[in-house]
Amino acid sequence: MTSQTAPRVLVGHGTENDFVVLPDPDGRVWPEDRLDAALVRRLCDRRAGMGGDGVLRVVGSAHVPDAAGVLGDELSACEWFMDHRNADGSTAEMCGNGIRLFLHVLVSEGLLDRATCEAGVLVGTRGGPRRVGATADGDYWVDMGPAREFGAGEAEVAGRTFAGRAVSMGNPHLACLTDVDVDGLDLTGTPRFDSGLFPDGVNVELVNVLEPGAHVRLRVVERGVGETRSCGTGACAAGYAALVAEGRAEGTVVVDVPGGRLSVQVTPTTTVLTGPAVLVSAGELCPEWLAG
Ligand SMILES: N[C@@H](CCC[C@H](N)C(=O)O)C(=O)O
Fold it and tell me: In which pathway does it act (predicted)?
């Protein structure tokens, strides 16, 4: 079979935020009109598809029509582009767990050598270029740039109202520090929020502080997905909010999520997220399923 009839597909996760990964180096396997929102929803379906919180297309930036617009002068510095889709088929500007898995896939698929990966590379995203690299112990880090706070807001979720900070990590977040035990919340519903503050929707983080400015527990309801077991950009927003609550502009915060543990290092100009990336399986999509 050729790649035209049976495209390669991988499944992996970062702290159990899981993704269907589609290698497409020269952009010929999954052009925009083929990988449309309906197919993304089918791929992410946990019963009738591969199953995942989203899709990551691994594509050369030169083959993404709108890459020049988001990467500007740095287009040529970003050989690769993380084309991220949420499970509902929508696109997002950034994905902190996904971009670590993206780098892991570049190496495992032989598209990037390990030494370059360890040194760190710029990857294009719809939120702009992000530097990503590997740690000596096999984890991955990504520099998201500074957390940008743009107001205060509220979300109604689990029958309660939570107040939080509106924070952009490239994508929008409402990071709510709360004394309500987040482990006891039913997060199956859709959060209500101020669409004036968040015209493009929002990811809602509910955060218990375990150690002020140093350690938090997080649950998250993601835009375009629902509750997930982890959100890397959400962890960054939560880490930033936990530090600001202590009057600090920098520090390192351990973020426990249902799917594991992440580390977030904040300075006024950078937010470095570190955590694992795990590949679970690799194979081919069945042409019969694709045609269905
Ligand atoms: N899980 C991701 C974020 C994915 C995008 C998000 N749902 C959005 O729409 O902004 C992460 O690890 O950051």
Answer: Amino-acid biosynthesis; L-lysine biosynthesis via DAP pathway; DL-2,6-diaminopimelate from LL-2,6-diaminopimelate: step 1/1
Phi and psi torsions of 161, nearest 5°: -110, 130
Rg (CA), the chain: 18
ipTM > 0.90 (yes/no) = yes
Let me know if 231 is a catalytic residue.
yes
Strand runs labelled E in 202-277: 203-211, 215-222, 226-228, 251-257, 260-266, 271-275
Q: What's the predicted TM-score (pTM) here?
A: 0.97
Single-letter code of the amino acid located at 280: V
Kind plus residue range of the DSSP H or E element containing 104: helix 96-108
Whose structure tokens read 């979720």?
Answer: 157
Does 251 carry a binding-site annotation? no
Structural domains present in the chain: 8-143+277-291 (3.10.310.10), 148-269 (3.10.310.10)
End-to-end CA distance of the chain: 18
Is 208 one of the annotated binding-site residues? no
15 closest CA partner among 280, 278, 282, 273: 278
Q: Is the CB of 58 under 6 A from ligand 1?
A: no
Integer Cα distance of 20 and 39 in angstroms: 12
Task: Give the model's confidence band at 4: pLDDT under 50 very low, under 70 low, under 90 confident, else very high.
Answer: low
**Average pLDDT, rounded, for the chain:** 97
222 lines ligand 1 (CB under 6 A): yes
